Amino acid sequence: MKKLNIEIKSEEEFKHYKAYRDGYFVIIDTTRRVIHTTGCPYVNISNFREKVLKNASKNGWYYFTDGLVEGREMFRAEKCKHCRPE
Ligand SMILES: [Zn+2]
Q: Angle CA(44)–CA(86)–CA(70) in degrees, nearest 5?
């Protein structure tokens, strides 16, 4: 199966992928790269608006991936300690 790695640039995309059960969000900012489950409370629309929309992606990027291993490798992301994706 081909793995998805999609940059999320709009609220509509955010809501669409947030509703997926089998997938992960990679959130990249100036200090960290963290991979989360889609259900993690840190993956929320207000943070997305702040980091991506308001700041025009100068301080943050959101990606959706359907592969945990691939997502971690591609983005060199650490696992969120709150939602502990596996
Ligand atoms: Zn998380």
A: 85
Asked if residue 46 belongs to a domain, the reply is: yes
CA of 39 to the centre of ligand 1 (A): 8
Tens-digit pLDDT profile for residues 34-85: 999 999 999 999 999 999 998 787 778 999 999 999 999 999 999 999 999 9
Within-domain flag for 73: no
In the chain, beta strands by DSSP E: 5-7, 24-29, 33-37, 60-65, 78-79
Q: Does the residue 1 lie in any domain?
A: no
56 Cα: distance to centroid of ligand 1 (angstroms): 23
User: Is 23:71 a contact under the CB 8 Å cutoff?
Assistant: no
